[in-house]
From TrEMBL, chains A, B:
Summary of subunit composition and partner proteins: Homodimer.
Matches recorded under InterPro entries: CBS_dom, CBS_dom_sf, Mg_transptr_MgtE_intracell_dom, MgtE_N_sf, MgtE_transporter, SLC41_membr_dom, SLC41_membr_dom_sf
Topological relation to the membrane, as annotated: Multi-pass membrane protein
Lineage of the organism: Bacteria, Bacillati, Cyanobacteriota, Cyanophyceae, Pleurocapsales
Family named by the database record: Belongs to the SLC41A transporter family.
Domain CBS per the UniProt entry, residue ranges: 145-208, 209-265
Descriptive protein name: Magnesium transporter MgtE
Cellular component, GO annotation: plasma membrane
NCBIfam families assigned: mgtE
Domain of life: Bacteria
Organism in which the protein naturally occurs: Stanieria cyanosphaera (strain ATCC 29371 / PCC 7437)
Length: 457, 457
């Protein structure tokens, strides 16, 4: 056996560099042969890397069944571009055979007119499955679930079940859990394939099933779905409607992508960038600018306030110009202390690690950390400022201001995310860029007032 | 059937609020009854929320088999605290029955002396399993894998395999994939439980197995292991040693935790906080301060440079004091533009979304975004600055500086993470706090020079 772990990585790189070359030479047979041993997700990646004009050509090299799998792995921007290039029949072949959850995701992105036409041409069963998913709100369990699962009756024996599975296995994405429902399709229990295999064949599902099932509702937020699967180490979680009827299943592989997407959104928010779940590197420059400029304007205006405060102190500054030199140090450090607090708190709220402690305890802890950090930095800054410019009173004003600003920053950085959450807003809005700028304004005010007192001006 | 999805959440909250109350009243029977219908992970959470003195008491209410499961879910700080409270025999009972990967994680945290004593007292099989895992470096596949999997020979038939599984299932964490190995324990193929169940019983494993197995090596970094499972939608990935012998398996539930931990590390880095994988909210204040103060010092010193530059311009500032008022606006906006670029690039590098494009293209794109954003903001800032203080030349200097600073910030924010990665350093070090501070220094220099030229000073 060769080292497949390495082989795969080499193959991926080889495919990406060779595919374009072969297509440029018009060597379609060569390209086809190149793709044979490659996994669908890797083919999708290679196609995404091609110039747009070549993507359709490469895609047509695939067999029908492979084409569907590869298509499901493509980025949504590429999916949309391809669908415009396809002939009518090609589109139908692919869309009809996609799994319903992937199809719903694609339909979300396509123009409503195109979706209506496509839905009309789907086979009846697929049309129903798609309509079901599209009927739920975005980012809920209903939208991301697959309606392809195996549900069985309690009275079935293990051996009957095994026979049934053999005939159903290919039609279902989820096979590791079997769901037991009653006459009105209500979920009554769950049997894992593991339970089934280790049980004696004459037992009934009712005898071996677990009755205490963890499940979610169709309107449960996707992040909560993900946290449920993560918390209980599940491979899939069943989704029920308001009447407790089983309607679908969310699988662990979708959950990984959801958690990653949520982490990206959090990270973007911390960096002051709006995110809408698209691949950033596939969006155009205007969209990029639009997603950033709003935040920048908010911060620009806040910064103007800082400027106004500084201008209002012109007469003080003219007397002791050296005071201006320490503004960046104070606001910069304050901003950084605040950013550290808000980062830790926002992440804690989002991963639910923080739930054990109340806001009071957490903010108090951050305040202590702020005083501690402010104290250490304040002493250093006082010495440093004295060494730099030799005026002891200015140095003292810098040091004392730094302690006050660090305390203020850590309290603001920890309290504002809680405040926002209690107002049902995303705590991540109170992230580093905002805290930094808010601390600037207050930091400058604190500094000038402390300086006035100490310098007796 | 009751609505379990809701019932679980209510139960969790009830357990957390009631457990301490019952223990305070000394009502141990009541506390025991309360915990009966609760899942181990939820019991663990409730115990973590108790005061330290009560944690042992609550823990002793559990049955032996449940105690082990609950213990595995506890945060490592609580695990360590508990182990010091336990009697010798209790410790052994738990540690011996933990799964090897969880045990290895615990041993990582305990003092070496305690670990040596515990290892000596383990049963021989468990001792070997633990020693195997502890022999690999931290954060590698070898360290996080479980050595409990089912490996079989090619010649076995499906029905023989099913019989075998029935006897092995309880001893193995992983059952959904069966691994096929040759005489020298080399991995030759993989059979999913699904394949097994749907195949006719007289076929051999050699006939139904998949030979093209995705696997990782013992020294593969845990993040790469996670990405492999995510990429190929696996439930588990086999781990082989240098001789391609199968030695363990990493499961998807561990991968979710790894990806979340890596996301937390990235987020902390973006906020200028060091992280070592512990639960932040369980660490003490000194550790908290230590993890933040290093960054703050680095930034303090960099900010001093900004201060020094401003002081060197004292004679310019004395002539046009109003220039000082726009320093926060310029450095603040520059910092925010840079933070946006670096956030997007660092996340892209970490999730491997960026791999299709080279650094050149990405940096060029960010530069264009910088000019675009700088242009918009520059025009607004010029008008705004004129309206605020009425000096056209100062306003013009502010506007032009803003364009230059935005360009600089977006180029620095996108180029530095790439540079760091090519030096084999973590790109996240070039995150918002650093970029913000670096842009401050250069921004002030640019501003003063542009102002000098425009004001003719």
């Amino acid at each position: 056996m060769t080292a497949n772990g390495i082989k795969h990585n080499e193959l991926r790189q080889l495919v990406r560099s060779q595919l374009e070359l072969l297509l440029n030479q018009g060597n379609l047979e060569g390209a086809k042969a190149l793709l044979v041993p490659v996994k669908p997700v890797d083919i999708a990646e290679a196609i995404e890397g091609l110039p747009e004009s070549m993507q359709v050509i490469a895609f047509r090299l695939l067999s029908k069944s492979e084409a569907i799998e590869v298509y499901e792995y493509l980025d949504s921007a590429v999916q949309q571009a391809l669908i415009q290039e396809f002939k009518r029949q090609e589109v139908l072949d692919i869309v009809d055979k996609m799994s319903p959850d992937d199809r719903a995701k694609l339909f979300d992105e396509l123009p409503a007119k195109v979706v209506r036409r496509l839905v009309a041409q789907l086979s009846p069963g697929e049309r129903q499955a798609t309509a079901l998913l599209l009927g739920y709100e975005e980012d809920t369990a209903g939208r991301i679930m697959t309606p392809e699962y195996i549900s069985l009756k309690e009275s079935l024996t293990v051996s009957e079940t095994l026979t049934r599975i053999r005939s159903l296995a290919n039609a279902s994405e989820v096979i590791y859990y079997l769901y037991v429902t009653d006459a009105s399709r209500r979920l009554t229990g769950i049997v894992s394939l593991r339970d089934l295999v280790v049980s004696s064949t004459e037992k009934t599902l009712g005898e071996i099933m677990t009755r205490d099932v963890v499940f979610v509702h169709t309107d449960t937020d996707q992040e909560e779905v993900a946290r449920t699967i993560q918390r209980y180490d599940l491979l899939a979680v069943p989704v029920v409607d308001r009447e407790d009827r089983l309607v679908g299943v969310v699988t662990v592989d979708d959950v990984i992508d959801i958690l990653e997407q949520e982490a990206t959104e959090d990270i973007y928010a911390l960096g002051g960038v709006q995110s809408d779940g698209d691949n950033y590197f596939q969006t155009n420059l205007i969209t990029v600018a639009r997603r950033r400029v709003v935040w920048l304007f908010v911060l620009l205006i806040t910064n103007t306030v800082t400027g106004t405060i500084i201008r209002s102190q012109e007469e003080l500054l003219q007397q002791v110009v050296t005071l201006a030199a320490f503004i960046p140090l104070l606001t910069g450090t304050g901003g950084n202390v605040g950013a550290q607090s808000s980062t830790v708190i926002i992440r804690g709220l989002n991963t639910e690690e923080i739930t054990d402690l109340g806001p009071g305890k957490v903010i108090f802890r951050e305040a202590l950390a702020g005083i501690l950090l402010g104290g250490i930095l304040g002493i250093v800054a006082t010495v440093w400022a004295y060494w730099l410019q030799g005026n002891f009173f200015v140095s003292l004003a810098v040091g004392i201001s730094l302690i006050a600003i660090a305390l203020l920053a850590s309290v603001a950085g920890s309290a504002l995310p809680f405040l926002f959450r209690s107002l049902k807003l995303d705590p991540a809005l109170m992230s580093a860029p905002f805290i930094t700028t808010a601390v600037d304004v207050l930091g400058v005010l604190i500094y000038f007032n402390i300086a006035r007192v100490i310098l007796g001006l």
